[in-house]
Design goal:
2 copies of one chain form a homodimer.
Chain A: H1 2-11, H2 17-34, H3 46-53, H4 57-69, E1 73-76, E2 80-83, H5 90-95, H6 103-119, H7 121-127, H8 130-145, H9 151-165, H10 169-188, H11 199-208, H12 211-221, H13 223-231
Antiparallel strand pairs in A: 1-2
Helix pairs in contact in A: 2-4, 3-4, 6-10, 7-12, 8-9, 8-11, 9-10, 11-12
């Protein structure tokens, strides 16, 4: 009997509570969609969900906890769990840690940055205001005076302001989130060569040039990074 | 006594298991970093973690379940939970559902698409091969023959191929993930105006033109979308 049991546990894989939570998570998502839940709507009680699904409350709690972590639902005093406007970048943020991301993904993300900065000219020119350009110029001028040891901080402040000018919150949060990775990739570079076009030059183009000129300026500014890509 | 209890429960907010799972999740992340866990390393057993943290196994299981959902750990037969190469886009994917994303975020994501496609010329020109261009041309030619009802499918196939040519897996997966949203935004547009530059024209530029020409071509191709942004 005990021999048979040990054979069985070799041959039959245990249905783990994780697998059950996966199933419950999917079932709950389908339910929320089918019933057209809107932000603010209250979910049925944990015990009711457990009964309807025929699983333990622990498993329902586990699945709800995942949806909560993704920002899809939240606890409200007296109302229980309610549907929220999901935070599409919140979950992404939790796994973006340069220490645990492999090299090829880091490289991918760095290229994503280059792509975004080359591509943002059109939206920048639609949204930029005189005040934005003034603030950007102040950042670029401060930087010229500061010592070279603050180079990464300067990069972050200047490019961060560009993302902010697009007025696109998702883009802006995306950039804030990717910053540790940009910093990490930058420290991996042996020689930090600057492009011929400086931050002050870019400000000047934003003031007096058109978006094609800005795109060409940004290409020159990022040239050392593109050169490295071409050598690979 | 029962009155006191009811007063207490009004004044003191209950420490929910969700809050506990948040704490345990953070504590586990710190532990994995401090101990420099590498992909493939096995985590301590659930019961050991529960003891060390002084919490119930259910709470540890809930926190582990979240890390598992984010693709940071996975169950391995006989080895228990092990650290994995995290899937940085996996979690993001789970909340990207046009039905539950609010309008302003949908708009942000659509602009993100425009930015990526305007910005990808440099990487496209570094990575493109003759075979890629041949495949892209086949897609554009098929499309000319097909009926207009397949317009969205054609868009997706052609632009998807462009992302694929960048050779950047993160960018490619990102695009696949954002597709439902692009589709959704497109269906919201009342009149679907095409840019003057067609997919076939873009292929022609990739064959005979330089990256500046491609960028200008893409700008023309996406012009109806940028026009809409400018009017807002």
């Amino acid at each position: 009997m005990s021999l048979l049991q040990s054979d069985l546990s070799k041959d039959l894989e245990r249905i783990s509570t994780n697998t059950m939570a996966d199933l419950v998570e999917i079932r709950l998502r389908e339910y929320l969609k089918k019933k057209s839940f809107l932000p603010g709507d209250a979910l049925p009680k944990e015990v009711e969900l457990a009964e309807a699904l025929g699983v333990s409350r622990n498993i329902v709690r586990e699945a709800l906890s995942r949806l909560r972590m993704l920002g899809m639902i939240e606890s409200r005093k007296k109302r229980g769990m309610v549907l929220t406007r999901p935070d599409i970048l919140g979950a992404f943020e939790r796994v973006l840690d340069p220490l645990i991301i492999d090299k090829s993904t880091l490289q991918d993300i760095f290229e994503l940055r280059l792509t975004l900065e080359m591509g943002m000219a059109d939206i920048l020119y639609i949204r930029k205001t005189a005040k934005d350009i003034e603030e950007l110029e102040a950042i670029a001028k401060r930087e010229v005076k500061s010592s070279t040891s603050f180079r990464i901080e300067n990069e972050i402040e200047f490019h961060g302001k560009l993302y902010a000018i697009t007025g696109n919150d998702t883009l802006k949060r995306f950039q804030i989130m990717l910053l540790p990775i940009f910093g990490y990739v930058t420290t991996l570079e042996k020689e930090q060569v600057k492009g011929k076009i400086t931050h002050l030059d870019l400000v000047d183009i934003l003031k007096h040039g058109d978006k094609e000129a800005f795109r060409n300026g940004m290409r020159e500014h990022l040239a050392p990074h593109f050169d490295r890509l071409e050598k690979k």
